[in-house]
Amino acid sequence: MSLFQAKFDTAIWEIVSSIPYGQVMSYGEVARAAGYPRHARMVSRAMSRSNKALPWHRVVKSDRTLAFPFDSKDYKTQKDHLLSEGAVLLKGKVIPPKKDTAEDLDALIWGPED
DNA sequence: CCCTTGACTATCT
DNA sequence: GAGATAGCCAAGG
């Protein structure tokens, strides 16, 4: 295992573990927060290398859609986890369950249909 | 080495 | 907003 992976993986795992219940971060945001800008594509690799239980389902693409193919099993698994945490998928985009701001209520009530 | 592969992104049309 | 395009960068063949 390369030295890069050793440090990179640890940094990534820490950030992913810090994502609050029901919330999400993009691969690029995680990479940046871990101190590795431009390494968005490495984030998924670091997560799949983890043997511990990581809330990987809280990591999505920069446009807030899921990274897996729509018909894949992984897509369904991730979606189920997010839904169970109170999030909602609108037009494929994850909407976190914050019900205390007018902005989010507007998104739920007036946002585009399915 | 050179080439290909991604659970990616920003920036054009 | 949906494609296309060009960067991105470690791994593995």
Describe the protein:
The protein is mainly alpha-helical and 114 residues long. Helix content is 46%, strand content 9%. It has 5 helices and 4 strands. It has a two-stranded parallel sheet with strand order 1-2. A two-stranded antiparallel ribbon has the order 3-4. The longest helix is centred in the N-terminal third of the chain and has 16 residues, at 3-18. The radius of gyration is 15 Å and the shape is globular. The termini are far apart. The relative contact order is 0.14. The model has no long low-confidence stretch (mean pLDDT 90). The structure holds a DNA duplex (13 and 13 nucleotides).
List the keywords.
114 residues, mainly alpha, two-stranded parallel ribbon, two-stranded antiparallel sheet, 5 helices, globular, DNA-binding
